[in-house]
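Researcher: Please translate sequence to structure tokens.
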Amino acid sequence: MPNNGSSRHRFYNKFAFYQFTFFNVTVPSVNLNRYSLFLIPAILVGIAALHSCVPERQVANLFIKSPHMISLLVNPPDQVFKYNHKGEEIDGFDSLTQQQQDSLLWEHSRYMQYINDSILLETYMNNYIDELRLLGFNVYLNNSIDSFMTVKHQSYVIDVSQMQLDEYYYPLEDEDAFLDTVYLKKFNINAVDYSCWFNLSKAGTGGGRKTLLYTSNTAYDTFDGRFFNDPFSGTVRYKYTIDSLRIKDVYEMATYLGKKHAGYLYDFFLNQYIAKHMPEGLDMEDYYHYNRNRQSLVPAYEDRLEVLEPK
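Model: Translation complete:
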């Protein structure tokens, strides 16, 4: 649609960990009498959908409200793998040897060379363990492995087998139409991916079956920009602000994700329980997330651990 004013805004939040685009939208007022005939069927569909997931929620509440008898032996990773992928800012990068590329990428990294592995791991693991305990798990560490081995109820070993940080530029485009002309602005904003692999196995099974779990989250620069028609010059200009991701943001990301990943593990056990205890003839329709602070149960959609097939 042609625009004679200013364009939409785009905003990337450092700690949303998902990419969103926000638009300036005018929402018209709704006449309930006029639209009631259309709203009633929609309401009935909503009620039917809610009713269809009642068995799942009932089973989930049994798990949430019962005393948890799940013990976890938590093993941290030995190191953090850190990579910089901003080769495009190094002259003649493609003509360099692999060793030269690796060396220069490290030297030119904005974040990776300054991240202290010990601080990052301690921050992540402390928050991961604390949140697991708040969620009701009995958590054991390596220094209490003898006590863990005497546990009689359900017990599992969770290895944080690999933690990896990747620094790169995320290409961002914004466009808008003014009269008959489409304007385009391109940016590169900083991004850091935080990927974790977990091995989950039942205790006492030796080299038995392990479930490989994976999750990845991203933090970006905070960006806000828009096209506008300059009334003085009559030309279309672009105005933007960028609040760049900082080193302290990467450490704060470890705090946030330690708690979030503990919640992911709780959700994994929760949904395993739901699937096992559904009434006969019924299957789960959603994968659920339990919010401990709000004590609420909501569909998790893709915000969860991914189960990887063993190679």
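Researcher: Any highlights?
Model: The longest strand covers residues 154-178.
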